[in-house]
Amino acid sequence: MNSLKIARLGEVSGRVTLPGSKSLSNRALLCAALSEGRTAVLNLLRSDDTARMMDALKALGVKVTERGTACEVEGLGYAFDTGLNRVTLDLGNAGTAMRPLCAALSFSSGVFELTGSKRMFERPIGPLCEALRNLGVHIDYLNNPGFPPILIRGCQAPKSHEVSIDGQLSSQFITALLLAAPLAGGLGIHVRGELISKPYVDLTIKLMERFGIKISRKGYSEFSIPEGARYVSPGSCLIEGDATAATYFAAAAAIAGKVEIYGIPRDSVQGDAAFLHVLERMGAKVTRLEHSVVVERQGRLKGIDIDMNAMPDAAMTLVPMALYTDGPVAIRNIASWRVKETDRIAAMANEMRKLGVKVECGEDFICIDATERNAETPVFDTYDDHRMAMCLSLCAFDRDIVVNDPQCVAKTFPGYFKELAAVTKKA
User: Of residues 49, 166, 242, 313, which has the active-site annotation?
Assistant: First the structure.
């Protein structure tokens, strides 16, 4: 196994230009593929997750021309149609490809096998598949019920245009139904229970509106896409910088210096941009500019007890920050961590305990008290989870660390460790 040693880090200073948002990139690629007209997708994230989506679209007959961090997508103007051929799509561990494509292909012509990595086979898709089955789609589980791999036989004429789905496990299920609704001839989507990660659904809706889809809603409990709705290319689509990736550099600056982060506009559509408010509560100085944000240390950070249900990915960044706060850090209402790229609650607890800190965790929370700690150089495991690697790198402001399998960051941010090195000095 490859590993990366990071000597203890000192001052943070400089500027970072963020790669494109993973969530926006894969949604935009799918919308562009289904649109009437050609779309130039700009500042596209180039990573394993987006490569999986682009490869899948090409296999489905979409012409995608790649040009560095931009690409041109020749929209189909209708649902996918692969005839009688069975098409197999390997989506790795890209949830932002697996869930939306599952729904979109359900209302397309063809037979589609969706497969992926070993971890993807452990990530639930049952609630989405059952909702689609209730609309008349034929979906088979090829291994374990409720999980990929799955086989879809497309259904272009759903038996109903009303569907109900639980919102408490993953917002990606609602996103998938929203994105597929125009292909189904319109849908009324009813969400049972409290929807988690609400900002990701807002992001989906705002992007669909850019592609000509009008959506009616009642809060987060009902959404309606009318019959006749069709995707229309806006001509070009600029992808914002990844707000989740921004949290690592923002946290580093709050801990040890000052950094300007380009790519997060003042009016960002990404929910994880609200992490900046959390840093302000903890005592950092945040200055928002038109296309960037400046974060600066203002002294020792304050501990925090916070509900992070709305931004679970960004919430992970708070875990190592407990090493630099005047009290414990408690992160609550994060049950979705259990079904991400790894069981992130268990994984974070395991790795933070290597520092000798006190960790308490349960089904939907984790609390870290770093009042006492050891002086060892930890060797952190990353569980093939890009966010584990990036979050744990922040422990290097406390001591030398070793990160196993650092290349796992290629899922969303291949150049992460190079960017971190560019804005940090050794202690």
Answer: 313
